[in-house]
Amino acid sequence: MTLPPLLSRLFPGEPVITPPIISLLFANLTTIVFAIAGHWNAATVMFIYWAQSGIIGIFTVASLLSADIAALRSDMVKSQIENGGSGDVSPRFVRFYTFLLAGFFALHYGLFHWAYFSFIVDTGLFGAVDFSNPEILIACLFFFINHLFSYFYHRKDEWRGAGFVTEEFFRPYRRIIPMHLTIIFGSIIVFALTMTGIEATMPVMVLFLLLKTYADLGAHMNKHSGNGQIL
Questions:
Q1: Is the pTM of the predicted complex or chain greater than 0.90?
Q2: Cα angle 62-63-65, degrees, rounded to a multiple of 5
Q3: What whole-number distance in Å separates Cα of residue 158 and Cα of residue 165?
Q4: What single DSSP character describes residue 155?
C-alpha cells in the first residue's frame, strides 16, 4: 500500500506502507499519548527516545553479525582483484571482520549513549525520570517490538554484502542524530519557557514529538526504500 499523494511528498523515494511502518507509527503515537496523559516532563520523553536509539544499536549489531558471509567474501574478493590483490580471502577472516566491526560499533555507540544517559538522567536539567512509571516500560517495549519485527520482516530483502555492512555501521548515527537534535532542542525550548513562568509547554513538546515521529518514519522509509538497494 502506497502513501496518499500529499504524504508521499513528505518522504523520500517511493514510500510504501508496510507493517513495520505501521508498528513504528503506533509506537510513536502511543508515546505521545502517554506523554500528554501523564504530563511527562522533557527528561522522560528524552529517555524514551534514548532507549529507542539504544534498541536501534542492538539490532545494528545483530545485522552486522548476520551479514551473508558468502556475499561479503565475494565483494571482498572482487575489491581485492580490482585493486591488484590476490583475491585470497578466507571465510574465517570474513567472519572475524564482522565480529570486529560489530564489537567496535557496540563500544563506540555504547559510550555515546552512556554520555547521553548521564546528560538526561544524572544532571536533572530537564526534570527527573520516574522509572517506577509502567508507561515508560510499555513505551520502550513497543519500540523494541517494532524494531524486532522490522529486523525479521526486512531480513530477506537486502543484499547483505560489503555495501550492506558499511551502510549498516554508519546508518544508526544518521538516523538518531536528527531525532535526538529535535528532542534536545524541543526540550531546551520547553525548559526556557518553564523558567520564564510559562507553564503551558505541552503543546510545544507535542509539536517536537510529532517532528521526531516524522524524522523516524522518514529514516525508516529511506532505509527500506523498496528498490533493493541500501541508501
A1: no
A2: 65
A3: 11
A4: G
Tell me if 220 sits within 8 A of 20, measured CB to CB: yes
Q: Are 60 and 78 in contact (CB under 8 A)?
A: no
Residue 133's nearest CA partner among 67, 41, 6, 61 is 41
- Per-residue pLDDT tens digits for 159-202: 566 777 888 888 888 777 766 776 677 777 877 877 887 766 67
For the stretch 195-204, pLDDT in tens is: 887 766 677 7
The single-letter DSSP state of residue 156 is: G
Q: Which residues pair with 2 in a beta bridge?
A: 16
CB 178, CB 33: distance < 8 Å: no
SS3 2: strand
- Give the separation between CA 221 and CA 14, rounded to whole angstroms: 9
